[in-house]
Design brief:
Elements: H1 3-6, E1 8-11, E2 20-27, E3 31-40, E4 43-53, H2 61-74, E5 80-87, E6 91-92, E7 95-96, E8 105-106, H3 107-114, E9 118-122, H4 123-130, E10 142-144, E11 159-165, E12 169-176, E13 182-186, H5 199-209, H6 224-236, H7 244-251, H8 254-264, H9 269-293, E14 298-302, H10 304-308, H11 310-314, H12 318-323, H13 329-336, E15 340-343, H14 348-360
Parallel strand pairs: 2-5, 5-9, 11-14, 14-15
Antiparallel strand pairs: 1-4, 2-3, 3-4, 6-7, 7-8, 10-15, 11-12, 12-13
Length: about 350
């Protein structure tokens, strides 16, 4: 297929000038986002970006060649240091089997075809490498989550925690060195078993356990499908009346139900209650991970669900109320001193992929 026919082109700067150039990518089941990223005096910035519907193409080679041609038409001397592509799926041996796509990302094949060093990483690892680039005092990058006493603690220590609810649940952590270096580590924390913590979550867990031979995993509660699972619990256990709005949600394709629930949550009491329970659980599981990793440098909430619904996380400080809960008073005090942020910078995946490329290939 002709890539150019379907591709949106966004020029962030008219002149493509930088000390070094990288090509980064964020590839998911919906869109393939590619960018030329420039480095000036150690700072990364997106210079040129393309967005192509992933199901309109049958692989990455044409979109990559199209982007490189666009960039070199504007700056014929432009030479790429490397390509770093992040994919929404498992990565092994520089290869990503992208979820919900008929094609994959083969780093070795791309490197051989283009003659440019190519690195393939998981999409959440790209976000994690983008976190150190964020300015926590810039409202376009970050929304701080005040604690229940209205404090926003300053970062200390060497560990940051990144949690992102989207289609699934991503969990990673970053270790910062005293010399300013850092390294991000992936995990499969979203697939850990979920532990209920009150009567409401016990009833929800029992409901979900009836549909599986295994203990319910955290991702079943904190993700897009988690919001849908909570909706089903309200429908089947709480027996809420199925009015026009809830019927619209139920009849929508599965992948659209969570966004419909959050869309109606401001005006519909049941949808609002679903989001309340989702935020409550999100706060509690974030605290569980925090007690393991002690991320005194901060916990970062990533992903579109949080960014598009941050008012539910801020309202009444509900997220932080459940984040701070613990049986032991000394652990409660520790949790109250962890900075917490919502990531608002939508370029974090592309910048993070470029940053991962330069960090991991040094």
């Amino acid at each position: 297929m002709l890539t150019a026919e379907y591709t949106e082109i966004h020029w962030h700067e008219d002149r493509l000038e930088a000390d070094r150039f990288y090509l980064s990518g964020d590839i998911g089941g919906t869109n393939t986002n590619l960018a030329i990223v420039g480095e000036r005096q150690g700072q990364l910035m997106i210079l040129l970006e393309t967005v192509t519907p992933s199901k309109k193409i049958d692989g990455l080679m044409s979109p990559l060649q199209h982007l490189i041609a666009l960039a070199q038409e504007r700056n014929p001397r432009l030479s790429l240091e490397l390509i770093c592509l992040s994919g929404a799926g498992p990565v092994a041996d520089n290869f990503c089997d992208v979820s919900n796509l008929s094609w994959d990302i083969d780093g070795a094949a791309i490197e051989q075809a283009l003659g440019i060093r190519t690195l393939v990483i998981n999409d959440f690892l790209a976000i994690s490498y983008g976190v150190p680039l964020l300015d926590t005092h810039n409202p376009e990058h970050i929304t701080p989550l005040p604690h229940t006493d209205s404090r926003c603690p300053e970062p200390t220590g060497m560990v940051s925690l990144v949690i992102g609810a989207g289609t699934g649940l991503g969990v990673s952590f970053i270790v910062h060195g005293p010399d300013g270096t850092y390294h991000a580590y992936p995990s499969e924390g979203g697939h850990a078993s979920f532990a209920d913590f009150d009567a409401e979550t016990a009833e929800l867990t029992l409901y979900l356990s009836r549909h599986s031979d295994f203990a319910a995993e955290i991702e079943s509660f904190v993700s897009g499908i988690g919001i849908v699972n909570i909706f089903h619990y309200f429908r089947d256990v709480r027996r809420v009346g199925m009015d026009r709005v809830l019927k619209e949600v139920m009849q929508a394709p599965l992948e659209k139900q969570a966004s419909l629930i959050s869309k109606h949550a401001h005006n519909h009491p049941v949808c609002r209650d679903i989001m309340r329970l989702f935020v409550k659980i999100y706060g509690r599981i974030s605290a569980d991970f925090a007690t393991i990793l002690l991320p005194m440098r901060g916990i970062y909430l990533a992903g579109g669900i949080v960014a598009k619904n941050e008012d539910f996380f801020l309202e009444g400080k509900q997220f932080m109320y459940y984040f701070e809960q613990n049986f032991r008073p000394n652990v409660q005090e520790m949790l109250k001193n962890i900075p917490a942020y919502i990531i608002r910078n939508y370029s974090i995946s592309l910048l993070g992929a470029a940053n991962a490329g330069r960090m991991l290939t040094r």
